[in-house]
Amino acid sequence: MMRPVRTLSWTVGLVIVLIIVAIASAALGPVTIDAVVVAKAVLNAITVPTGLTMEEPVTVPGFGWTVHGPRLEYAAVFGFDVPETHQTIVADIRLPRIVLASVVGFALAAAGTVMQGFFRNPLADPSIIGVSSGAAAGAVAAIAFPALVPFGGLHLSAFVGALVTAFLVYAIATDGGRTPVATLLLAGVAIQAFLGAMISYMLVHSGDDLRQAIIWMMGHLHNSTWSDVGFALPVTLVGVLVLFAYTRELNVLLLGEEDAHHLGVDVERTKLLLLALASVVTAAGVAVAGVIGFVGLVVPHIMRLIVGPDHRILLPTSALAGASFLVATDTIARAGPAEVPVGIVTAALGAPFFLFLLVRREVHSV
């Protein structure tokens, strides 16, 4: 089968899986809702802009800034008969959380795929160069010491912390215009250790905000809003689309930097671009959901075993599988009598499965 057809087939199949998982997730909870009612409520939530109004202030998604200006008004496209309570539960409570889980899972799995190819190591994940630690430091600072973060809210602080960390690691590892992968990895380990100390210090002095900071660091999707989606979705989509345009170069880098250079790839420029985009995509996901482990580690590895190492098909399939995986695990996280952070569930499921692959000798160099 030709690659474009195979890629399209896998993509369509995984999109269908994501839709099924999302509908099942929206149906489950303290109030169980029939899947058909869920589908109707979702369609009812689809709106189109009808005009502008200046009557109410506008909250900039993810930043916490409130400004006065024109605001779009929307009208529903469909008008299915759905009980008002069910419509509110699906459209205002569960749907934003499911969409955000999809976006974050999509981002982390895509970034993990790129990192594993970049480092040619199946143990690589989006946090390997300290991006997650940087986001955690920024978020904990915003939670525990808001006076130190005057430029925006929690999301922006975490996002900036992640990007500053990635830039710092790259700057430390670069010498004479070259960035050895081994040096980059070691710099990431050192920066993570330093940031871990900073985070621990802030947690010790966080007072009443300690619980909120710890829950954020565990990874959570509780109280997700459409503003969170608006913060993460554009960055994730643009970043992954650009990464997909460089999947050929990523394939060539698997042969080694010297061979890639002889095949016409600008190795250092490509490495910088891949690292920057993967860091931005990771930062967008971590900023809105906290540190969620194993999505970017296990999902790309499983998909590599299924579809092969060609990143032209591996990247989109891993991203879609990551979206379904995080929606499913978040459903498990909120299914019990007491909700737990989704990061606990992903680690509890991902670590044993990865150990199983390791015992079976399925974990090997990419």
UniProtKB/TrEMBL annotation:
The chain crosses the membrane at residues 12-33, 98-119, 131-149, 156-173, 185-204, 225-246, 272-299, 340-359. It holds the Pfam family FecCD. Keywords: Cell membrane, Membrane, Transmembrane, Transmembrane helix, Transport. Its main location: membrane. It is found in: Cell membrane. It is a multi-pass membrane protein. GO terms for molecular function: transmembrane transporter activity. GO terms for cellular component: plasma membrane. Belongs to the binding-protein-dependent transport system permease family. FecCD subfamily. This is Cobalamin ABC transporter permease BtuC. It comes from Natrarchaeobius halalkaliphilus.
